[in-house]
Known about the structure:
The protein is of the alpha+beta class and 196 residues long. The chain is 26% helix and 9% strand. The protein has a single domain, classed as 3-Layer(aba) Sandwich (Aminopeptidase).
Amino acid sequence: MRSVLEAQFDSHTRTSGHSYTKYNKWETIEAWIKKVASENPDLISQSTIGTTFEGRNMYLLKAVRTYGQEIHMTQLLDELDFYVLPVVNIDGYVYTWTKSRMWRKTRSTRAGSSCVGVDPNRNFNAGWCEVGASRSPCSDTYCGPAAESEKETKALADFIRKNLSSIKAYFTIHSYSQMMLYPYSYDYKLPENNEE
């Protein structure tokens, strides 16, 4: 099991930077974000939607336009904006490299509790603290003291609310379990516009 987990990680001997085939350290991801935006200013813009509990910037990439050769991608980018937030729970992700490989919560602290973090997937104001969530701060599925109590969750939710009228689809990768959940993990009811 250990060898399988270690094989997923960024090699310390690799010097070529970001890899799409392994988990990269946050510093490598952050450098890639800045590099891809600076090397492709006609295609990609970079912004920050917030900061994490530990003060890290939450970078957002936006594919703005293209003059590419591939006609279908060019048509898509001419008609739609694509936003990519490479990592939401940056502090928790960094912690997986330094202390606990399977850590999934944020790194926030609460007065009166020795337990650290909130499960950001269960902290959104959508079925908050219902199915599959815990109210115990020490649980891996702790939903937090309130919906959007975490800086990371609040920043992403605020971005979505601000752009809700123009958002056509929202796709997230739940990398802890390496699953894609549709439509939601707390409810099996399909959205009204599912056929679209």
